[in-house]
Design goal:
The chain is 80% helix and 0% strand. It is an all-alpha fold. The longest helix is centred in the N-terminal third of the chain and has 109 residues. The radius of gyration is 48 Å and the shape is rod-shaped. It catalyses: S-ubiquitinyl-[E2 ubiquitin-conjugating enzyme]-L-cysteine + [acceptor protein]-L-lysine = [E2 ubiquitin-conjugating enzyme]-L-cysteine + N(6)-ubiquitinyl-[acceptor protein]-L-lysine.
């Protein structure tokens, strides 16, 4: 059977028109999906930006706590250092003053030994001997205990905290509900 040319023409024109309409409709749907996907991209970017910001704020808060604690502990060490240095410097001053006084007594004694006048020597010797005796008896050497300079008691073991920090990870909401 042969169809008239006008029927074939109309039928193919109609099929082509229907095909074009389907493609245009399909393109509209695809364009709608593309728009939704672009909106999804923007939403993903915004959500990720927000999550990154919240994560950074939480870590900054932890850094702040660590920094504050580090400063507190450093101050304890510094106070102990100052106390110990003050004590040692006081001993140095005490011993230096004693050395200076003893040196003066020794110098006076040596000069006095050259005194040619026996009466002057005997008159002043008693006073000088008394000063020498007092200087040697009165001075008590205070020694610092062995290991006084040691600061090992300020050692910190952060292994447990390090392990906890290394285990920091994201959680799912269903995990949060279980706790």
């Amino acid at each position: 059977q042969v169809a008239p040319l006008t029927h074939v023409f109309q039928r193919q024109k109609s099929e082509l028109s229907d095909g074009i309409a389907i493609l245009v409709g399909s393109n509209d749907r695809v364009q709608g999906v593309i728009s939704q996907l672009e909106d999804t991209c923007k939403t993903i970017e915004e959500c990720c930006r927000k999550q990154k910001q919240e994560l950074c704020e939480k870590f900054d808060y932890l850094y702040g706590i660590l920094e504050e604690r580090k400063n507190e502990m450093t101050q304890v060490i510094t106070r102990t250092q100052e106390e110990k240095l003050e004590h040692v410097r006081a001993l140095i001053k005490k011993y230096s003053d004693h050395l200076e006084n003893v040196s003066k007594l020794v110098e006076s004694g040596i000069q006095f030994m050259d005194e040619p006048e026996m009466a002057v020597f005997l008159q002043n010797a008693k006073t000088l001997l008394q000063k020498i005796s007092e200087a040697s008896k009165a001075f008590q050497m205070e020694k610092i205990e062995h290991g006084y300079e040691n600061m090992n008691h300020f050692t910190v073991n952060l292994n447990r905290e390090e392990k906890i920090i290394r285990e920091i990870d994201f959680y799912r909401e269903d995990e949060d509900e279980e706790e």
